[in-house]
């Protein structure tokens, strides 16, 4: 595969941006692939290599790249102006649509990223309860702000900084860590810190160490425990919201959190985040209450228009086909590793999947860390050579979109098979 132009761009970029990238998850050795255009399930790099994409912008692009309805909505809005610093009709329409599928989000705020959404959700929980502590699960990633960059997944784990330098000890001390899928650990944390914990925050399906499902009953137990202790439950559905189902993990597992955060799919590929809760809780937000949140680009017209078009389209198309293709993908991978006698794990749900290169079933962060990350990166490159682009880390999730056809899935399974064969 010719990658000379990518290499040349990286040579220029690496003196300009740390690691040559604007977000560390995009960096990998020897240099990243520079993309020039995308459509449907396909990416083209600057050297004109065509790739089946399973990274999908790290999750937002559930309809595939450049979906006509989304492109049209953005084009139309761009022609009418990018930013007014005033509310718009699409804001009301998108909020109504979100509330229809997430009725627990009686009121919400649109922000510009998932990071902002979780930052404000935590501030809201602290402001509403008058407590400082939060309980976070090891390996869950909630964006790049101080309270949650403690044992964080995603790029923080990939690049060996799950506890980021620059986060003051005082800030980290307010974040209590527990393993995912361990209800007794949460119970202990809540008992030992009675009346001091504002919220428990988690990804209901972990997506940032690869997909890790909650054990049966875990989310229900978390709900009961938090109610018992008067602690708010925050579901970070930045990945799962609209991806697992229109109503996200909340409706998929039928467990109601107090506060929900959304992002990714909600923006149709443009930057967005949202946090929402009951009217009572949200009335703590300024200007109704004393918890402050603001942003020049919060609820910006382009993101709202793209998001509205995307969510409406998804509502029409449904998740059934997407889930079926996810199933075929996971079954295909499971068959390959069985045939090749490899001890690996296939994980995922709906349109999310990952091959964990470990012999241990992955139920939490520590299990995920037993994976052979070097061999995983060899797999990544072997797949790239075969025209399949997955997220460049063991600790991420691969995503399918409605644009992936059965043929795409077949080709990807074949590419994994060949790539794994080449590693032997
Ligand atoms: C579950 C979760 N929460 C929050 C975030 C942060 O979102 P953003 O990258 O839009 O700031 C991410 C990003 O990957 C995420 O996966």
What is the general shape? Answer: globular
DSSP helical segment count? 15
The beta-strand count equals 14
Q: Percentage of helical residues?
A: 25-40%
CATH superfamily of the largest domain: Type I PLP-dependent aspartate aminotransferase-like (Major domain)
Which regions have little confidence, pLDDT < 50, spanning 5+ residues?
A: none
Task: State the end-to-end CA separation.
Answer: 21 Å
Bound molecules: pyridoxal-5'-phosphate
The value of Rg in angstroms is 21 Å
In percent terms, what proportion of residues is strand?
Answer: 5-15%
Question: What topology emerges from the helices and strands here?
Answer:
Layout: H1 4-13, E1 35-39, E2 42-45, E3 50-53, H2 68-79, H3 89-101, E4 107-111, H4 114-129, E5 133-137, H5 155-158, H6 169-172, E6 175-178, H7 183-192, E7 197-202, H8 218-228, E8 232-236, H9 248-253, E9 259-263, E10 273-277, H10 279-282, H11 301-317, H12 320-339, E11 345-349, E12 352-356, H13 365-368, H14 373-385, E13 388-389, E14 398-399, H15 406-423
Parallel strand pairs: 3-13, 5-6, 5-7, 7-8, 8-9
Antiparallel strand pairs: 1-2, 2-3, 4-10, 9-10, 11-12, 12-14
Helix pairs in contact: 2-11, 3-11, 7-8, 12-15, 14-15
The chain binds pyridoxal-5'-phosphate.
């Amino acid at each position: 595969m010719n990658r000379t132009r990518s290499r040349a761009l990286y040579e220029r970029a690496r003196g300009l941006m740390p690691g040559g990238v604007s977000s560390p998850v995009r960096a990998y050795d020897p240099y990243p692939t520079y993309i020039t255009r995308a459509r449907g399930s396909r990416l083209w790099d600057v050297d004109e290599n065509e790739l089946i994409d399973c990274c999908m912008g790290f999750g937002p692009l559930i309809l595939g790249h450049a979906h006509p309805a989304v492109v049209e909505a953005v084009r139309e809005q761009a022609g009418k102006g990018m930013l007014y610093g005033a509310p718009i009709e699409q804001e009301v329409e998108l909020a109504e649509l979100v509330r229809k599928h997430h009725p627990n989000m009686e009121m919400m705020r649109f922000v510009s990223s998932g990071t902002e959404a979780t930052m404000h959700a935590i501030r809201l929980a602290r402001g509403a309860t008058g407590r400082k502590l939060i309980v976070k699960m090891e390996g869950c990633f909630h964006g790049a702000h101080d309270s949650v960059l403690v044992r964080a997944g995603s790029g923080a784990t990939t690049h060996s900084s799950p506890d980021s330098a620059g986060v003051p000890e005082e800030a980290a001390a307010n974040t209590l860590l527990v393993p995912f899928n361990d209800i007794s650990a949460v119970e202990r944390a809540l008992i030992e810190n009675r009346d001091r914990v504002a919220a428990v925050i988690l990804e209901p399906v972990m997506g940032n160490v690869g997909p890790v499902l909650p054990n049966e009953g875990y989310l229900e137990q978390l709900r009961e425990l938090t109610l018992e202790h008067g602690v708010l439950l925050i579901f970070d559905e930045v990945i799962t919201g609209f991806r697992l189902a229109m109503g996200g993990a909340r409706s998929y597992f039928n467990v109601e959190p107090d506060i929900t955060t959304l992002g990714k799919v909600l923006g149709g590929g443009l930057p967005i985040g949202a946090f929402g809760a009951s009217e009572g809780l949200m009335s703590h937000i300024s200007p109704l209450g004393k918890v402050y949140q603001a942003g020049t680009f919060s609820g910006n017209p382009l993101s709202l228009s793209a998001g509205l078009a995307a969510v409406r389209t998804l509502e029409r198309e449904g998740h059934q086909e997407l889930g079926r293709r996810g199933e075929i993908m996971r079954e295909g991978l499971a068959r390959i590793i069985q045939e090749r006698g490899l001890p690996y794990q296939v994980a995922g749900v709906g349109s999310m999947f990952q091959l964990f290169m470990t012999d241990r079933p992955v139920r939490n962060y520590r299990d995920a860390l037993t994976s052979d990350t070097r061999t995983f990166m060899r797999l990544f490159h072997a797949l790239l050579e075969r025209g399949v682009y997955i997220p460049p880390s063991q600790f991420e999730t691969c995503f399918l979109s409605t644009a992936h056809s059965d043929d795409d899935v077949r080709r990807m399974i074949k590419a994994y098979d060949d790539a794994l064969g080449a590693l032997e």
